[in-house]
Amino acid sequence: MKKIVLLVVPILLLIGFNDTKQTSMKENKNQTIKQKIDSLIKLMTIEEKVGQMNQYNGFWDVTGPAPKEGNAEKKYEHLRKGWVGSMLNVRGVKNVLAVQKIAVEETRLGIPLIFGFDVIHGYKTLSPIPLAEAASWDLEAIKKSASIAAAEASASGINWTFGPMVDISRDARWGRVMEGAGEDPFLGSKIAEARITGFQGNDLSQVNTIAACAKHFAGYGFSESGREYNTVDIGMSTLHNIVLPPFKAAVDSGVRTLMNSFNEINGVPVTGSSYLQRDILKGKWNFDGFVISDWASIGEMISWGHAKDKREAAKIAVTAGSDMDMESNTYIEELAQLVKDGFIDEKLLDDAVSRILRVKFELGLFEDPYKYCVETREKETIGNPKHHEAVLDMAKKSIVLLKNENNLLPLKKEGQNIALIGALAADKNSPLGSWCIASDDNTAVSVLEGMQAYENNSLVYNKGTDVSLGKTTFVKEVKINTSDKSEFNDAIQAAKKADVVVMVLGEHGFQSGEGRSRTNLQLPGVQQELLEAIHEVNPNIVLVLNNGRPLAITWADEHIPAIVEAWQLGTQTGHAVAQVLYGDYNPSGKLPMTFPRNVGQVPIYYNYKNTGRPVDKDNNVFWSHYIDVNNTPLYPFGYGLSYTRFEYSSLKLNGSSFSLGEEISVSVDIKNIGKRDGKEVVQLYIRDLFGSITRPVKELKGFELVNIKAGETKTIQFTLNKETLGFYNNESEYVIEPGDFKVFVGGSSAETVEADFELK
Ligand code: NOJ
């Protein structure tokens, strides 16, 4: 090994890696990095270049179809040859250090690896699932949550997360809606920005920050019929106005990497789409980071019927701008030969490699490849009590109060007999949510434990029924209990004696996430039957929902007096839920996705188009509707109650007619008309009434989170400008058109005060 170290050092010196001189100018720094990259690339063989573009999965965790048996030896051999640029799913200081040492000390050039991991909603200390966090509309809290995830992951050797997922989706059947920010591109863009700044901080070379990855570029959230990995067929207007804006926001906020996706768009698998990766991302948007493929997606172009073999797949992907290959082995097997045979210009490799090296330089890996591998820091950081406080705060902010008839909530703190029912109430694993690979099993505070902290009531717990059967894991399908009702009776007896019944029902944490599409959006298994059976003996029920997607709970909405949306809230779930139920926290969450009345309404979303037949005054059949259910959702986007109430009035604009480019000021009064202090998400929507491309009936263009004391009135100001009044035409050009507009402000997309204005 010594001999190899001797070989490496002169090369590092030659290109000035030991130059620690600090420059204050970002441009100078970029210039220096560019020079270093250029010198390094000159030293690299074709195989070493391809190596930088090759990412292997580690040797323990798997987050995709299992790699071939016995290929660990091959991976080690390739590591030693310098044929690997990155590893995913290697975590923990000891493990990362061991693998990094091979890259740095045993390869010819000693180029450090970048270690990627799915840090999606926390690392060991888990935050609420991303969809839940989005329900807070609290960008500071979301940013903080990402920064805590980065602190823990980086202390464990990781320097790159495969997050945030910024896919917009309107389809609750798709399991991955739990990983995103919901259905709206404006909210999605703001949250993308918050998460990226949280992960990356202001300076990527700081040891507690990690490179972010906006995924999945692009269109994955529109998988046909919500079926995972399915085709996507969307028009240009949806692509440019709904799908791409959060990616653009991610690039504008400095995201260092993007991941492409498994789907095709318009017949082209996006891994091989030059239009998306070269023309838009690296061309129009000037993105200078790198693009990683999704797990095996380069090779999967063969199954799609787009490439005839791995050689062709590699050629298509690299030409289209996929810089790094995650686990399809296509680049490592094919690229070097393709260059040697003259089928690919080596310049394509140089471009990809320089992008990858740039991020490694920015992370400071060349200065100190072991900077993320300090065991004392790992011990101090992971599970730090401050992180628990922060994820508890995030969890409370993520809860949405859906219904509260006769102020059943908050619960009285003493003298009550409470029956707590539902297997999920005592579950310490499911609330961790789907991306919990780095956390330890059963480490969530359960709702039962959270409620036990309120000691002056009598609390009786009964499972009632199991939701899932057997041990469930990240890679295995959840087995749902669809028949066993043997414990119904115990729960019914407990409910009969109770003043209030709290039922925790919904999906197991592993029923949403990757590979978990559903065709049925009701409570899984026999839980609906349990709910109805308990309701028969005691209708005084608070239903606490656990779920990673909108559910169709129409019966519950009609019969159950209080409903609390508690998603999967991470490590501190139980305390967050109990504090909301007992009124120590006044909920303020608002839905980031529309809840349908039934699955047949899906895809359903607030920013729909009016159609040519929006109504029929004569009550004939010839208008856009269903004959068996209303067009409206069960709960609209932006909806959520509080223990107080807010009244909106005096919507004012600083004029009624404006010239293009002029800023428009909008103000509105919000009064807290209840008896408690509360927090409201004030939402501003517009409608552009007539457009060369038809415009949605409402588009979110601003929001603000305000604390308002009981009885107090606050005036909130918004500004509409050229960034918010235009849209993308089908040539992907941003245009603002003169004409009539409406502006709406309210506490949900469905309840608003409105005014009109004109753009000239
Ligand atoms: C496949 C998923 O689609 C992607 O989001 C994830 O980052 C990779 N697997 C790595 O685990």
UniProtKB/TrEMBL annotation:
Its EC number is 3.2.1.21. Transmembrane segments: none annotated. PROSITE patterns: GLYCOSYL_HYDROL_F3. The keyword Signal applies. InterPro entries: Cellulose_Degrad_GH3, Fn3-like, GH, Glyco_hydro_3_AS, Glyco_hydro_3_C, Glyco_hydro_3_C_sf, Glyco_hydro_3_N, Glyco_hydro_3_N_sf. Residues 680-749 form the Fibronectin type III-like domain. PANTHER family: LYSOSOMAL BETA GLUCOSIDASE, PERIPLASMIC BETA-GLUCOSIDASE-RELATED. This is beta-glucosidase.
